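User: What would this chain look like folded?
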Amino acid sequence: MKTSLLAMAFAMAVSVPALAQAPAAPPRCDGEVQVIRVSKLKPGASIADFDKAVAMHMAWYRSHGYTTNVQRVGRVMTPQGFASDQVVTVHVNAPGVPRDKRDAGWEAFVAAYRSVSDVTSDTLACFPKP
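Assistant: Here's the prediction, encoded as structure tokens.
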């Protein structure tokens, strides 16, 4: 739970433009690479629709031999309760997948995400190993 809260706080602290100016290759991480994204659901889409895209995403990783990564989905909290149109994903131990390994299955889960959501922030972070 602490890692998820830290990841969400870190996601808010680092801006997308900062990543756009980063070098082509990220620095070496001696801990766990985590990708933290905030996504806004499109009108008519639901959390369940987003969860289906996440399931496709993780199934693709497992079917291609990536077994040590985990993707967690969290609800954005507001003073009024949970946001109905925003989600946060934390992809723990996210493997870097070379472009030449991204096949039709990859394109399918990306299309599933894009059909139901837009990424509003995307942060790559290195966390110490637990």
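The chain has four helices and four strands. If you want, I can go into more detail on any region.
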